[in-house]
Amino acid sequence: MTTSASVINNPQASTKKRRKWKSFALYFILPSFILYTLFVIVPTVGSIYYSFTSWDGISPDVRFIGFANFVEIWNSPRVHNALKNTMIMTISLVLLENVVAILLALLVDKVRWLSKLFRSIFYFPTLLSGIVMGFVWAMLLNYNFGVINQMLNKIGLGALAVDWLGDPRYAMLAIVLSTVWKGAGYYMIIYLAGLQGIPQELNEAASIDGANGWQQFRHITFPLLAGSVTVCMVLAMIGALKIFDQIAVMTDGGPGFETETLTYLIYKVGFGELRQGFGTALAIVLFLIIMIITVIQVKFLQKREVEL
Amino acid sequence: MKLKTRELTVNILIFALTLLMAVLFFFPIFFNIMSAFKSNAEIMRDALSFPTTFYLESFKYLLTETNFPKAIQNSLILTLVSIVFQVLLIPMAGYAIQRKNARWTRFIFLYFLAGMMIPFQAYMIPLFKELKMLGLYGSLAGPIMIYVAGSVGFGSLLYSSFVKGIPMEIEEAAEIDGCSRVRIFWNIVFPLLGPVTASMVVLNGLGIWNDFLMPMLVLPSGEPKTMVVEIYRYIGEFSSRWDMIFAGTTMSVVPILIVFVFLQKYFVKGIATGATKG
C-alpha cells in the first residue's frame, strides 16, 4: 500500500520525485521564459543601450554619445513642458477618477433598484478602446456640430460653447474628462468590493447615535475604504502616466504642445522625428518614474498590512 | 409611518441621481451606435436627432469599398491566436513556479514580476528594430509573440497565487497512479483553474482587441492593420466622412458589448483579483 503521505515521508522517493519535478518545472516554464526574455527584457536592455547613442532608428551607424541625451532632457523646454503636462494630467486624473469612482460605488451600493444594471453601465466604458471612444468624444466636443455645444446653444448658454479641443485652455480639460468617463468604472468595481467588506452594523450603530450620512461616510466608510483608496490611487497614477490613445486621436499633443505628455513625446520623438536615441532616453525616464511609484506602493502597502 | 415615507423619498432621490449618472455614462456609447445609422448630412445637421431612416450605406461602403474587412480579420486572428497561446503557456509556468518553489523558480518569478513595471513605451523603439532583425516585421506572428510575452508577468502572478489554493493530494495520488506531469496538469489542475482562465481570456482578449500603439508600429505600412488602427487612419484620411467612421467604431464596440453581456462576471472577477493580488 502506498499513500501520498508515505511518498512525502520517504526521503528516497521524495528526492526522486524532486529530480523528476525539476525537469518538469523547467519544461513548463521555458516557453514563457524565452518569449518574455526575447520580447520584453532584451528590448528593455536595448533601450538602456540606445539611450546613450544618437541613433536615428534607420542608419546602421549607432554613435555612442555618453550622457548627452540625458543632459538634453534636463535642459530641454519641450521635455519640461511634457513633464508639466504629464503632472497636471496625472494629478487631475488620479483625484477625479477616484472621487467619481467612490461616488459611483456608493450609489450602486445604496440604490434599491436595478443596481446590477447600473454597475454594468458605469463599468462598460472601461472595456472600450481609447481610440474609438476618443473619436466619439472628439465628435461630442466638436466646435461646430458637437452635441455638447449644440445643447449649450439650445438651453441659451451659447456663450459657454467653446472650441474644446482647439483652444489651449480647454484641450487638457477635455482629455481629462473623457478619460475620467472611460476609467472611473474600473475603480468603482474595486471600491464596491471594499464597501461590501464593511460590516453593516457599524453604520447602523452610528445612525442610532445620530450620525448623519456625511458623518458616517467621513468617519466610518471612508477610513475603512483606505486600502482600496491606496490601490486605486496607484493604479490610476500608473494608468495616467501611460495615456496615449486619447491624446493621439483627440489632439495629437496640441494645440501647440498643450497636451503633449511624456508618453506622447517618446512616440513623437522616436517615430515622428526619427531621434530614437533621444526617444529611448525619455523612455528610461518614464520607466524610472513608474518603478519609483511601484516601489513606494509596495513599501506603503506592506506598512499598512503590518498596522492591520 | 413618517419614517417609512422619508426612507422612500431617500431611496427615490438616490435612484434618480444614479439614473442621471447612468444616462451620462451611457450617452456616448448610444450616440456612437445611433450615429452609425445616420447619413453624413444628418450628422452634420443635428448630431442629437434620431436617424430618420435605417441608413446602412456607411456599413456597406466600409465593408465593400475599403480594406476594413481585412482589418477585421487581422483583429480577430491577433486576438484569438494570442489568447490560445497565452492559455497554453502561462498557466503551466505559474503552476510550475508555485509547485516547484525552489530557489531558481523563486528567482524566475521575481524576474517575471519585474515585467509588470515596464511600460510598453519603455521598450517599443528597440522592439521595432528587433522584430526586423528576426524577420518578424510585417507578419502577424510578431505581435502575437509580443502579446504572449507581455502577459507573462501578470499571468504567472495570477496563476501561481491560485494554484497555491489547490490541495496537492490529488496530484500526488495521480502521480502514484503513473500519470505524467503534463497529464496531471492538463487533466486535473487546469480544469480547477477555469475561473482564473476565463478572467484572463476576457480581460487580455479585450486588451488585444483594443490595442493601438503596438499593431500600428509593428504591422507593415501600406497594408490594412487592425480595426482600431484603421479607424485611426480613416479619421485622418476621410475627415469628412463621419458616418463611415461611426460605422467602424460601432463594429469595434458591438462585439465587446455582446461578450460583456454574456461573460460579465468574469470581467468583474478579474478586476477584483487583479486589484488585491497585484
Automatic annotation (TrEMBL), chain A:
It comes from the Bacteria. One of its GO terms (biological process) is transmembrane transport. Residues 83-297 form the ABC transmembrane type-1 domain. Keywords: Cell membrane, Membrane, Transmembrane, Transmembrane helix, Transport. InterPro entries: ABC_transporter_permease, MetI-like, MetI-like_sf. It holds the Pfam family BPD_transp_1. The chain crosses the membrane at residues 24-50, 87-108, 120-140, 170-193, 224-244, 278-298. The keyword Cell membrane applies. GO terms for cellular component: plasma membrane. It is a multi-pass membrane protein. It is found in: Cell membrane. Belongs to the binding-protein-dependent transport system permease family. This is Carbohydrate ABC transporter membrane protein 1 (CUT1 family). It comes from Fontibacillus phaseoli.
UniProtKB/TrEMBL annotation, chain B:
The keyword Zinc does not apply. PANTHER family: ABC TRANSPORTER PERMEASE PROTEIN MG189-RELATED, ABC TRANSPORTER PERMEASE PROTEIN MG189-RELATED-RELATED. Belongs to the binding-protein-dependent transport system permease family. Pfam families: BPD_transp_1. GO terms for cellular component: plasma membrane. The lineage of its organism: Bacteria, Bacillati, Bacillota, Bacilli, Bacillales. This is Raffinose/stachyose/melibiose transport system permease protein. The chain crosses the membrane at residues 12-31, 76-97, 109-128, 140-163, 184-209, 244-263. PROSITE patterns: ABC_TM1. Keywords: Cell membrane, Membrane, Transmembrane, Transmembrane helix, Transport. It is found in: Cell membrane. GO terms for biological process: transmembrane transport. It comes from the Bacteria. It comes from Fontibacillus phaseoli. CDD domains: TM_PBP2. It is a multi-pass membrane protein. Residues 72-263 form the ABC transmembrane type-1 domain.
